[in-house]
Structure formats: structure tokens, C-alpha cells
Amino acid sequence: MPTLVNMVLPHNQAALDFQHAHLLDAQGNFSFEQLIPIPPILAHCINPTLVTPEELQRLKEQTKVDSTYFEQGLLLDDDGEGNALSWFTAECQQRLLAQFGVDNRFDFTLKHWGIVYGPFTLVNYQESCHFGTAFEVPYPFMRALTQRCPEGIWHWNCEIPDEVEELSFELEGGKVLLTEHWINDDYDLRQKDIYWDDQGGVRAQTHGPTELNLRKRRYCVKLKHEVTN
């Protein structure tokens, strides 16, 4: 599966001010969690195992686990190789679903960020922020960003490296607008259908010319389509 290279660039002062105040972490890197933080109880709750209250009590007594959330019905641990472990009761699970709509970290980030893992390989060039994401295009985060600061204008670019495929967006006025989508003519189109989804059949709703760029051997579709799904 490809890794996506993302580039985010503020286009006006409102976007620049909002980016500095709400999108950059202490190191100055673009951070999804600055805008949409993960609830602490879900932060380490990864692939939780459902157990009875009695089993949870035995785990707490027999193993060295993190019991921070034991009273809420959740225990945390790791397997010694950096992989998180967690156990919760059915009551805890139902409480998390009622409060957050999800019962684990990955479902939360997928729901609110549109990606499972946070940004990685972070690099800033002046005001533009570059980072990688695994597989998914972060549509929910894009929408949250422009809706939190509708007066701001951002350009957001997602690219599979080596001139394979690219999506370009404008974020403004609370809307996410897909402005361009191109794919290399040599790329396997079947993979495009697996990895890319323009949300609602955008490929059949072009608002401009579709052309073959022979110099770069790519199909280029210019769009002005609002992503709403």
C-alpha cells in the first residue's frame, strides 16, 4: 500500500494565524491532535479485548498492568515489544461508545482525522508543512479544519510518490474543494479504485476538461467539487 505525502500551505493571514495557534505542536510540527485531541482514556486503548469484571480483576491482581482506568473497567499494558494491550468490560465498552461513538484509539482517529496513524516524517518549509500519512486521505480532518476557521484559506495536496497520483484541495469557507486529481497513465487503474475515493463519484462529475498530458504521461482532471462525505 502506498504512503501519502501531504503538503499543507496557508494562503491568507487568517489561516496562518490559526495554523500557529491550533495546528502546530511544541516542536512546530503539524499535528492532528492539536486540533482534535484523542480522549485520554482512548489514547492507549488499542485493539481492546472484551473480558468479564471478574477476569479484569484477576488481570489487575496477577499482572503488572496500568490500572489508571480500572475503576472505569479498563486495563492497559504492552507485550514488551512496544505493542499496546488493553482489556475492558462490556459496561466500559458501552460507556465509551455512548460518549465517543467508538471504543478504541484507531476508530477514533479514523472517524475524526480520516487516518489511523498520525503524521510522520514531518518537515516544515517556511509556512508550508509536509508530512506522510499511511494510506488514507484525511478528509474528516480537512473538513474540521476549514469549519473551525472558515475565514482561513489553505491549499492541501496529497500525493503518492514518484508521479503516480495526486489530489489537490482548497480549504475555505467551511468547504473542502477538490480542485485537481491526476493519475499517471502507466499506473494500474485498479489500484486507484482501492486506494483513492473522491467521495461520491467525482470521477464522473468533472467540471472542466479531461486531458492527456503527454509530457508527463498523465491524465489530468480539473475539478471544483466539494467533498461532503
Q: How much strand content do the residues show?
A: 25-35%
| Shape descriptor | elongated
Give the termini distance in whole angstroms.
23 Å
Work out the radius of gyration: 21 Å
Q: What does the average pLDDT come to?
A: 81
Low-confidence stretches: 190-217
User: How many E strands?
Assistant: 11
H/E order of the elements?
EHHHEHEEHHEEHEEEHEE
Largest sheet: 8 strands, antiparallel
Helix share of residues?
A: 25-40%
Q: Can you list the strand order of the major beta sheet? A: 5-6-1-7-8-9-11-10
Structural class: alpha+beta
Tally of DSSP helical segments: 8
Q: What is shown here, in short?
A:
Helices cover 28% and strands 31% of the residues. With 229 residues, it is of the alpha+beta class.
Question: How would you describe this protein?
Answer:
Strands 5-6-1-7-8-9-11-10 form an 8-stranded antiparallel sheet. Strands 2-4-3 form a 3-stranded mixed sheet. The longest helix has 11 residues. About 12% of the residues have low confidence. It is elongated and about 55 Å long. With 229 residues, the chain is of the alpha+beta class.
